Amino acid sequence: MTTLHFNYKDVFRAGRLGFSAKKIWVSFLGLLIAFIGYGILSYIAYISAGVEFGEVWDTFRLVPVYPSGLPWYSWIIWVVGLLWWICVALITGTAVSKITYEQLKGDEFYEIKEAIKFALKHSKSVILAPAVLILFIIALLVMGIILALITWVPYFGQLFLAVMAVPAFAVSLFILYLVIVTVVCLVIGPSIVGETGNDTFDTLFESFSVINDQPWRFIGYEILLKIVIVIGVVILGFFAAKAIFLGNTVLGIIVPADKLDNIFSNASYYVKITIPSICPEWWNNLVTGYLDWIGMPNILYPPDYIAAYEAWAGAIASFIMGIIYYLIILFVVSLGKAIFWSGNTLIFTVLVKKKDDKNLLEIKEETFEEPEPITEPKPTEEKEKKTKRRAKETKEKSAPETEN
């Protein structure tokens, strides 16, 4: 079992715990599944509004962002894709948290298959916990809108508005509180389920408990965790870019330069990451500067497609290389997700120790032995038992007579 400090120092272990082949692989699979589902639904959202496929491709490539300026039904389809992404992320986080928890308890060989089974089995808890909060918030907002209709009534409506001002203010504060708890549940919910196997109610209870009993520790630890994640992703992204350049250089020793440049240039055409317009300018500048620093600005501004070298063979090779580029990006992001979920497992363990004085790493899982199936005796076995019983009874009766 790992010995923790049960303070902020444990958060820095997240980088080491997240840098694990098992956790990165689980995070990678989750991102890939989420990526495919979200991409398909996002394209459907744009195409349903009459936008041409080629136009969407030129703007976003494989990952369209939110459909601004499109009809309401396009937004609904896009939201479904976003919910798919969130649900897959929560289940993936549960699996990573379970692996981390078992590792902290001393089981370094806990299998990926077992972690995925555990996450799927408890997916209801980790998804419904924030969903219940969101539905409750929506219900409160709808009730507020319905009550607001009363203000249309002449004279009485104005008085009703004045009387209900204070209760409405209190409900508004409560809604903001529920929004905060929902964010906490999304962030730490998978770690709660991964460590305790809680149901929906218990997961909600722990989420409320964390934000009520340890709010500043939670916020401070999460800030430290984000710093660790950024450092890990920046370093891995740098080395991933240099590995691509190294491979290009090694291949250039044998492969003609024109052929190699054509394949890599057309491969870059397929890859494009769009920064949403809602992101602040400083974030945009930060991402752009980082990609320029590692020598990969094409991720944001891909080149135009040029005539493929050796016709169809070069076109296929470029397409495959474009897919590999996407997989490398997912691999780098997977490290960030692995560190995130591993770190939140540590954070929840520390917070439980602080607020409940309970060490989750010392709790042993209860094992229940399955009862052996009751098999009915066969007819021949029953006859043999009856024959033996009768012989025994006859022997017992004849025994006293013999003694006399």
TrEMBL record:
Residue segments, region Disordered: 366-404
Transmembrane segments: 24-47, 72-96, 126-153, 159-188, 223-245, 311-333
Skewed-composition ranges (Basic and acidic residues): 393-404
Keyword set, alphabetical order: Membrane, Transmembrane, Transmembrane helix
Protein name (Swiss-Prot/TrEMBL): Glycerophosphoryl diester phosphodiesterase membrane domain-containing protein
Originating species: candidate division WOR-3 bacterium 4484_100
